[in-house]
Structures are given as C-alpha cells and as structure tokens.
Amino acid sequence: MSNQKLNQMLNQIQKWLPDWPRLPFWPRLPLWRRLLPVIALPVLVLTGAAACSSSPLATTDEMTRAERTIARAEQDRVGQYAASELAEARQKLQASRSALLHRDAVNADRYAMQATLDAELAVARADLAQANSVNDEMKTSLGILQQEMLRNTQGNQP
Question: Which Gene3D superfamilies match (predicted)?
C-alpha cells in the first residue's frame, strides 16, 4: 500500500472517531501502531469480561459419594422403610450444593458427608426392617409347622 492510501484510511478512521487525539507525532506512526488502541481496547474488555465471568464449580468428591449413595438407596427402594432418613439425606445434599454455590467448600463437604451418612443410615434401617419382616414370616411359618406336628402326633396316639 502506498503512503497516500494509508493516510486516506487514517483520515476515514479519524472521521469515525471524532474525539480521537490528534497528537503532533500521530501521522508519523505506522498504521498498525495507530490502529493498535482501536483494536486492543475491545480485545482487552472482552478478555476481562471472560476472565471475570464465573464458571460453575465442580462438585466435590464427597458430593459425588453422597449422590451415589442416595441413588443406590433409591434403587433399593429404601423410601418404603426409611423415608424420613432418605429425605434428610436429600436435604443435606441440597444444602451442600447451595454451600458450593456460595463458594464455601468446607461446609459443602461437611453437608455432603452428612448426606452420605444419612443415606447409609436409611439403607441400614431399611435392611433392618426387611430382616425383621423375614424374621416375623419365619416365626409364623415355624408356629404353623409346630401346630401341624402336634396334630400329627396327637392323631397317631392310640
């Protein structure tokens, strides 16, 4: 490009930016040097905005463990036997997520650990209830068998 074309382009740019500073050394600078502030300012603003934007925080290991424990409890239908403990575990997991959004990783981990323990408690209570149910069924069956044995022994005596 010739020097005359560059000056024409510079004049056009200066018409677009009427408040642009007209310093005595300005026309002597190369075009790229004169356009640098025009290009650099938007780039810096966009870079700064991108750097300041918050990205969602990743879940902690404790939160992942709590989510897995609660999901396993739900698959095992623990809610039938220990609904309150499972609901409490869900509430504490939600509190953990909320703490993480407020950038409080210590409380997020603490709530997640409590949620894991509550879910494990719900599983244990459900297992206990199921074991008690099986135990009651076995006692009933044993009672029926004992009655049958008594009837058979009384019927066989002369």
Answer: 1.20.1270.390
Instruction: Please tell me the pTM assigned to this model.
Output: 0.56
User: What's the CA gap between 147 and 154, in Å, rounded?
Assistant: 11
DSSP annotation of 104: -
What is the separation, in whole angstroms, between the first and last Cα of the chain?
130
CA dihedral 97→101→102→108, nearest 10 degrees, is: 30
Contact indicator for 10, 20 with CB cutoff of 8 Å: no
CA–CA distance, 38 with 59 (Å, rounded to integer): 41
Please answer whether residues 119 and 69 qualify as being in contact, where contact means their C-beta atoms are separated by less than 8 angstroms: yes
Is residue 62 within 8 Å of residue 100, measured between CB atoms? no
